[in-house]
Amino acid sequence: MSHQGETGDLFADESAVTTTGVIRREAITDEGLAHFKAAYPGEAISKKDLFYYIYGLLHSEDYRSRFADNLAKELPRIPRVKSAADFWAFSRL
Question: Which of 9, 50, 82, 83 has the most other CB atoms within 10 Å of its CB?
Answer without folding.
Answer: 50
